[in-house]
Amino acid sequence: MDVGNPIDFTGRVVIVTGGTKGIGAAIAEAFLASGADVLVCGRSAPGTLPGSDGRRCAFRATDVRDPEAAAALVDTAVERFGRLDVLVNNAGGSPAADAATASPRFVEKIVALNLLAPFYVSQAANRVMQSQDEGGCVINIGSVAARTPQPGTAAYTAAKAGLWGLTRALALEWAPRVRVNHITTGLIRTESAAKVYGEDGGAAVAEVVPMRRMAVPGDVAHACLYLASGLAAYVNGADLAVHGGGELPARYLAAGGVRIPFSSP
Predict the structure, then answer these.
(1) How many domains would you assign to the chain?
(2) Would you please indicate which residues are annotated as catalytic (active-site) residues?
(3) Strands 51-52, 55-56: pairing kind
(4) Quick check: 5 and 26 in contact, CB under 8 A?
């Protein structure tokens, strides 16, 4: 199959939810740099929209937990650009909360943002993509929490586990015209992560990652470009792990295991 330049998205239209900062902004900028027209959303407009080479993303204020707002977001992309080729369900997250005392309202909000919102936006996107000759693709941004939770993340873990299950289900139902894939993200160095792991970029935490560093947002953005490109034309219902090889087993660290020497290529 001749895919030409598979990372050229000129003439393509992309929506990135939560695309105004952090990982979402990096994803939006990567698609912009590759020629796409990009619509990002958030609860409120940022001071500066993500941009690349003098181009900026379009923006719509949207609460993606609201099904009608999610549908309106997709409608905006089609009205403005004439089509929709890629949806990246990036919006998500959760503060830490003790499962024993978390309120019903807290749990509902976390599940709505991390699981229901991707479902709602994907439904609206699918209606458009199924009508296009070239279809489209949906990329769900997940987390290692779905498989290896840590204390304080019960609601978030459950929602992210559901997102992986949703990905597989939609991939079965919407193929062949619409592909649906999942990215499992690990530890990522962002401004918000610095508050948790330290201003040194999580140097100590990086020691438990085989790649010897936390991911940067661009690592996730590049994975999105691949999954949306012609190189992944037969990739559907897949999970792409962007976590640097995971983490060293706790039992190894607890036993005082010696690090495997690092050697440069």
Answers:
(1) 1
(2) 156
(3) antiparallel
(4) no
